[in-house]
Structure formats: C-alpha cells, structure tokens
Design a protein that fits this description.
The chain is α/β, with parallel strands linked by helices. The protein contains 14 helices and 16 strands. Strand 13 and strand 14 form a beta hairpin. The radius of gyration is 24 Å and the shape is globular. GO terms for molecular function: carboxypeptidase activity.
Length: 512
C-alpha cells in the first residue's frame, strides 16, 4: 500500500498468525514474508509473538526511515506465568544511533475498553486513515503516509490493553479483576511498560506517556505507578481530551462547568444571538467562562435559596449562550444535562448533535424525547477507522491472524473505585522536577469537555507551584481533534514543541 517502503523484513516468533506451533522458537529473519503453517484447526493465542517490517515516511518534507514491530508481549503473574498477551505496535526511527537521547512515547486510548487505533492511524503514527478534511468517512477505505506524524522527534509504541485490539487473557482461570478496574489497569500496565522498556533497551531514553479520554485516567495513574513501583521517571505526560481524573466537583459545579462547551457548540451551529456570532470563538468563550466561574457556580450552589428574580436572570443568560430556550432551562432548574442538550439544540431542524464531537449531526426516529438515538460521531468514526486498521496491520505490518481486532472489547464491569489519578499525577510532578504535562482539548467535545479539562489543572495544582510545567491547548473540533486536517497540523506541532521543551539540556539536575 505504501509506495515508500524501502525494505520489507519479517521477524516471526512462534505463532504470529494466531495459530499454535509446536514448541518455542527464537525470532528469525528473512528477506521475504514468512507464513506459519499448522495442521490444527483450532485458533490459539500466543502472548509473545512479533513481526518486524522496515519503512520510510516523509515528515515535514524530510525522509524518516523506521522499523515497525507488531505483536504481543506477555503480562506475567508473580510466579512468572503469562496471564495475558498485550498487543502493541512499536515504531523506531532507524537512522538514530544514540537511543539514550531519543525520546520514547507510550500511547494509550481510552474507553475503558478501547484499542489504541484512534491515535495510531488518526494522529501521531506514520500512516493516516482516508477521511475528508473535517474528519468524515470517505470511500474507498485506506491510508496514506502521515506527513504530520511525530515519529521525526520520538519513537512511539501503541498499546492495546487486555481484551482490546488483539490483546487477550491466557487461560480461562485468570481473574478478570487483575485487569478491569482503575487501579488494576494501572498496576498491570505499569508492569507491562517495565517489561517493554527492558526488552527493547529503552531505559536510558527520555520517556513520555500520551493518553486520550479514559487513557488520560490511565496515564495520570501510571506516571506515579512507574515512579513508585518501577523507579521509572518520566519527562512528560500528554492528556488528550481528559476525563475528570477522579477530581471531585460536586453536583452544582459539575453542572455549571458544561456551559462553555454548550456555548461553543451553539456558536458553531449558529444558535446564539447575532452579537455573539459576530465574534470569533476565541473572543466569545472568555465571557462565558467568566460568567460560569463567577456567577453560575455560586448561584447553583444556593439551590432552593436562589430567589426567583435571580433565577430568571440566570436563565436568560444561559439561554443566550447555550442556544436552549429559557423555558427548557427553567424547567430543568438551570441545569440542562448533556443528553437533553444534544437532542434539543437542533430539534426544530429534525436533527441531533454528536456527543464526542458536536459538529456531527444525526437523525432520530422521532423528534420527541430527551436524548439522541445514537452517537452520530462515533458511528462515523467506526465507519472510517475499522477497515483501515485491519488492512494496515495485516497488509503493511505483516501481522496476520484470524482473530478479530476489537475496536472496543469486553472489559465491563469496570471497577471505578479508588480513582485518585489527578492526585497521582500531581504527586508524580511534585516528586519529579523533570515531569511536564500538556493538555489538548477540542472545543466541541461533549464527553470530556474543554472547560472541565482546564478545571482539572486548576484543582490539581491549588498551590500554583506546578503551573509553569503545565500547559493547555484548544482546537476547533471535538474529542479526536486531530481528525480535522487543520487541527492535525497544529496539534502535532504542539506535541513536538512539548517534547523538546520537556527534555532538559545534558547535565541539568532534577532539583528545585
């Protein structure tokens, strides 16, 4: 598929085709792809099998040669028994001689239950799926070189947690509780990262974690887990469309913080008064943010003690910013939930708006109701991503298996108890002077909205002593802001600048 492949070499251990092979064999190399033949009709999973290929991609006008390793690396229990195999794709730039100064970025997506496919072929990886400039699906399906990949400045490994992608538990007696919960997830993936860094000799490299959506919960917890349990210290953590990171808000504050997102969405769909629509988005939102923090949050916290006059005045302002009628706002006690907002904003046009990206429109069976029938944006994204990732892994990277690639896998019930990941990240930053944090948000994301992402930063660092190592960037798209061509170019450049900033000059001590 890619025209710029300069060499194709496969390394296969045991059963990269997904079938069993008698005994174990060491990784072998040949100049042609190999096919594993097996007489057994049973599909069996090998938790430790890889295939390697070599490629070149043009990034910002310069050729970047790289090696791609696709396969599985085990999760071991305390007795050294493999209890799961985690699928990964690892890209290494091959014209770099000194790995001690070459950054390594470890990439996770969210869910929980989602594979790493989204940022892999939609954001930072060396190939990019075939979509239009705003991120909508087009046919024919496919992929092409990603000229905005960050592989020019960092090696990258994309990780599929257990039961996502091609990752699986080994054996029927493995307890699900070892994997499917906030803290269990952090624990086993910390062990796995240690194994990966050791096997691929990356201990000397500056290290970065990037997570999207629930992946931000994961990497925030991992930052401290890697320090405390594996003595592995990071240079940076990137939070793409972050969750609340376990930071308590309270009912009133939680409701109020949604208004800036509502305002951004109403602006996009031209449902605000003309004086607001005449402003640029970046000029309009600070007014809404100030109203939210200084008027709306204190008012909602008064509850039933808020007098009728004040309530009417607030409803008028909320309606002005959000595009929702005063009547609906008053009926909901000044607190319109997201599901109702997605259904109500374009109700008179017979349309709904997307949850993860409110630029997307959907059509319901009936205009009545309090929530959309489906998530318009996620349907579009699954439409766009699923064929290319299956094509790419098998055809381009040579990882051939009869197992299905789980875009979303069975990880529920998920144990959410004990989520202190925001505090985990704060503590990791406090105890590691090298550690920097970058937050990236789309203005039209209604699941992990941009203003809550800002609020995370304010609450995570109440002393203000860490803020010079924390930064936030906003983009005019949604949850996966990188699917919009203009934002892909900008957001990847922000990643490059962040990585360079977070690596100290040689000999700089980590101290306050």
């Amino acid at each position: 598929m890619l025209k710029d492949i300069v060499l194709f070499i496969c390394m296969i251990t045991a059963s990269a085709t997904g079938h069993a092979q008698d005994g174990k064999s060491k990784t072998t190399e040949s100049e042609k792809p190999q096919t594993i033949k097996n007489s057994s009709p049973d599909l069996k999973f090998d938790p430790d099998a890889t295939v390697v290929t070599y490629h070149t991609v043009i990034i910002n006008g310069k050729a970047v040669p790289y090696k791609a390793t696709a396969g599985t690396l085990p999760v071991w229990d305390a007795d050294g028994k493999a209890i799961a195999g985690v699928f990964f794709v690892y890209y290494e730039r091959t014209d770099v001689k000194d790995k001690s100064t070459r950054p390594l970025t470890i990439s996770f997506n969210g869910g929980p239950g989602s594979a790493s496919v989204w940022m892999h072929i939609g954001y930072t990886g060396p190939v990019f799926l075939n979509i239009d400039d705003e991120g909508y699906p087009v046919q024919p399906y496919g992929y092409a070189p990603n000229q905005h990949s960050i592989l020019d400045v960092t090696d990258i490994v994309y990780v599929d947690p257990v039961n996502t992608g091609f990752s699986k538990m080994v054996g029927k007696d493995v307890a699900r509780e070892k994997f499917f919960g906030v803290n269990a997830d952090i624990k086993y993936l910390g062990d796995w990262v240690n194994s990966f860094v050791s096997r691929y000799d990356r201990w000397a490299s500056p290290k970065f974690l990037i997570g999207e959506s629930y992946g931000t919960t994961r990497v925030s917890g991992l930052a401290l887990e890697l320090q405390q349990s594996h003595w592995m210290y990071l240079n940076g953590v990137v939070l793409v469309s972050p969750t609340d990171l376990g930071i308590e808000r309270g009912t009133a504050t939680d409701a109020a913080l949604l208004l800036p997102y509502y305002a951004a969405t109403a602006w996009y769909h031209k449902k605000q008064p003309s004086d607001l629509l005449q402003k640029d988005l970046a000029d309009m939102l600070p007014e809404v943010e100030n109203f939210t923090m200084n008027e709306l949050i204190p008012a909602l916290n008064k509850g039933s003690f808020l007098d009728d006059g004040a309530k009417q005045m607030l409803a008028a302002k909320i309606a002005r910013y959000s595009g929702i009628s005063e009547k609906i706002i008053l009926q909901n006690n000044l607190s319109v939930g997201t599901s109702l907002f997605w259904k109500e904003l374009l109700r008179h046009e017979g349309l709904t708006i997307g949850r993860l990206d409110s630029r997307y429109r959907g059509i319901d069976k009936q205009d009545a109701g309090n929530s959309p029938d489906f998530n318009a944006e996620l349907t579009a994204w699954l439409h766009a991503f699923t064929p290319p990732i299956n094509m790419y892994l098998k055809k381009e990277l040579g990882y051939k298996t009869d197992y299905p690639y789980n875009m979303f896998g069975p990880v529920h019930p998920w144990d959410n108890k004990g989520n202190q990941t925001g505090e985990n990240l704060r503590q990791a930053m406090a105890t590691n002077p090298y550690l920097h944090v970058l937050v990236q948000s789309g203005y039209y994301d209604g699941a992990c909205d941009y203003f809550n992402a800002k609020y995370n930063m304010w609450q995570m660092d109440p002393s203000g002593k860490l803020k010079n190592r924390m930064s936030w960037e906003g983009y005019r798209s949604g949850h996966m802001m990188y699917l919009r061509k203009e934002d892909l170019k900008t957001s990847t450049q922000h990643l490059r600048e962040f990585i360079k900033k977070a690596i100290p000059k040689a000999g700089t001590p980590a101290k306050y």
